[in-house]
Amino acid sequence: xxxxxxxxxLGWDEVLTEEELSMTLKVLxxxxxxxxxxxxxxxxxxxSEEEENSTLSNEALSRLKAPCKKLLYDSxxxxxxxxxxxxxxxxxxxxxxxxxxxxxxREQQALHVRYGQKRILHQLxxxxx
Length: 129
Prior knowledge:
By secondary structure, the protein is an all-alpha fold. It has helices at residues 18-28, 32-40, 49-53, 58-62, 66-81, 87-95, 97-102, 105-128. The model has no long low-confidence stretch (mean pLDDT 86).
């Protein structure tokens, strides 16, 4: 369900791997009985037209059912814990011109990428609280 990378791709405005995330949330939030019934229906691809036509925009994420929101929230927290520093530390380093200039070009680029990733994850936390 998650693809080769084992991760979902989030953008500023929507989930870029929305089909994978939708299916994963749907399955993980099912009861055991619902899962058995869903699995017995010969078509994992046979979802309702409404689900197929919906996008996981930020607005849609904020309207998810409580169990799905909780699952996403906890997943984001785990992902944030995997980073060495928090968002504030990255922001402070970006703001400190002297410390920033001591970083190699590659370290500066990595800092910008990590900072952007963390901002998106924090935005997702706010959406699913």
